[in-house]
Amino acid sequence: MAWSFVNSCIFQESDTKNSKIEELLSMIEDRLSTLKEEKEELAQYQQWDKTRRALEYTIHNQELNDTRNKLDQVIGLLAVTLPCARRRSTWLNACRLAVTCC
Questions:
Q1: Which sign, positive or negative, has the C-alpha torsion 56, 62, 67, 71?
Q2: What is the pLDDT of residue 63?
């Protein structure tokens, strides 16, 4: 009878350990499942973020090109009008001198 009691205790201890192991495995599987879902969400977020950054770059680049074109136009206008303005200024100064001298 003593042996059957010892065997019974060993079996109970083994069952308890098996239950704890099964519980731990279940927790690990749940965590792995959660991590897999989070990994998929992260991959999707990274794809959307990459698309967003590409669009932001495209918009910024277009605005930069538009600004450069406008600056080139202004510089072109200055190149055309500045010599004329200098001639006008010289002519006006000469007229002023002529008026003040008389």
A1: positive
A2: 96
